[in-house]
Each structure stands twice: as C-alpha cells, then as structure tokens.
Amino acid sequence: NKIKTLLSTDKLNPVLIVSPSWLSPGASVTLSCDVEYPSEGWLFSWYKAVPYYKITEEPYTYELLPDGSKTAQSLHIINGQTSTAGYVCRVERGSNFYHNYYSKPKFVWSADVNSAASLTVGPVVQNFGYDSVKLTCKGNSPSWRVRKFPENRRPYCSNFWDSGESVCIIDTTYSDDGVYWCESMSKEFSNAVNITIQDFYSGPIMVIPDDPVKTGTFVSLSCKLRRKKIYPSVAFYHNNKLIQNDSREELNFLAVSNSDEGSYKCQYSGKESPSRYMSVKCE
Asked: What CATH number matches the domain at 205-281, 3.40.50.2000, 2.130.10.120, 1.10.260.40, 2.60.40.10?
C-alpha cells in the first residue's frame, strides 16, 4: 500500500533539464531526465516538442528523436542543434508495470536570426496612460504565436494563431521580463530574445495626450520614471524653456491655450526624457 501511494504522487513525474539554455556555435545540447522516486529501473525516451494548433488544450505534440527510444540512459546528447527548440523526456517501467510519464517541455534558445522564422523587438511606444513594446513574428509560415518563459500563468501572447505577421504588445506598466520567441504552425521556432523591461528605459517618459487638446480645458502632463525616487527633482521644459522645477511629477494647465502648444520634455533627477509634442485646437 505504501508503494502504491508513492507511485501515485507527483514524485513519478520526470523533470527534464536542458544544458545549456542558450546555444553557442558548435556546442552540443545535453538532456537529463530525473525521476525522484523510484530512481532506478526506468527506460527513457526522448522527443522534440512540435507546436500544435490547439494552443489552449495541448500546445505541443511530441516527435521521437533519432535513437531516442527506450534507453536505460537518463542522459541524451544532441549535436548540431542551431536553432531554438523544445524537448520532452518520457519514462516507463517494464511491461508488467504499465507506468509511463512525460516531462513538461523544456527549451534551448538561440539568438541567431534566420529568414524562415524571426522575432523582432520594437522600441517603447508611448500611449496615453501606458507604454508598450511590440514584438513581431515573420517568416515562411502563414500562422504564428509568441511564446514566453517564464510563463507566469500566460505562456502565450494570445490564445489564437495569428495569420501573416504575428504582433505581440507588451504593456510595460507590468514587469513582464522573460525570454520570448515565435512558434509557427509549420513547426518552426524563431530566434529567442531575453527581454528585461527596465532595459528599455534609459530615462523618464514624458506623458502627453495623443490627441489634440481643446482650448479652455484642464490638461495634465506627467513625467514618469519606472523606478521612482523618494525625493525626486522634476523639471519640465516647453520648447526647451524651463517652466517648472520642483518635486511634482505633473504639469497642470487649468485652462490650456494656443500658446501652450509645442514640444515638451522633462528631467527626472537628472535624467532627461525624449521630447513630445502637444497639439491644441480651438473649442
């Protein structure tokens, strides 16, 4: 009874370890499959994870690797891998046991860009109230999806395949650091990109309404720094002329006028934002 209880626990689920995580030219990839209990008596099989069209149900199917079927070795070496790929291991005990279990997919990433599948990262785009970064998938396949690790409950940018170019918008209001790559319905993986949202911010962001503001209305501009300081020094400039210099992160207009139209920028504790233009139209 004790053995049956142990066999029914998560300790039977194998854990796949991929080394290295990032490919380098000429390097081999080592797959290691570990089972916590029991640790001996298993046969190991090795698979490549292939994108599947049902994203929300079973995102991958598994294709057996050459020489990857039912070996007693818990290690498997892959030579000549040059692009991003996913792998899975399966463990089973002899024919009298009927126990076989699959690991979760693990990935090895490549930063090399190829024409068949590529991921490009755009600059930060300032929107009204938030900023975003655009990721774009391109290549030979008609359908794409953007994958992320760690998943943080959301492994894909969308729960649908996108036709043509796939575009993923990351809201930088939330820290969504991780490794991103594209997967196609044609079983292709793109280059991977390690994104740290803070890397996009060398300075503050000047927040201005995207649409023209009406004369006589209240308008508030702001100077935003992702990592705020406790006692900031914030300066606002209109057409390169200093108009406010204190600790306030907002520049308010009780009744905006035509003379307020122009280019604005700010300095946050010595760091300067890019300039942005505010348009004013008559009521």
From this structure: 2.60.40.10
